[in-house]
Amino acid sequence: SQGRDVFLRCRDHLIEHYPHITGITAAAKACHVAPEYFSRLFRRHAGQTAQNFLTGLRVNHAAKLLQSTNLTIQAVGRTVGLPDPYH
Hints:
Layout: H1 2-17, H2 24-30, H3 35-45, H4 50-68, H5 73-79
Helix pairs in contact: 1-3, 2-3, 4-5
């Protein structure tokens, strides 16, 4: 369906650009959809909120970096788009 295609485009955008995304509103704008529609797409097709999806991308990448590099927690946080290392 058209909604599924839009979701896949938005999901792929998050996967590719998550370290630089400042929030869900900015991500929706980059995908050329309204933030409310963006959120509905993720709840419907991913079974979770867009924010949870974005956070999951960041946390998973951070865990991999912490296991495979000698980067500090602060450096890993910045790398995955979390400027506050205690976040």
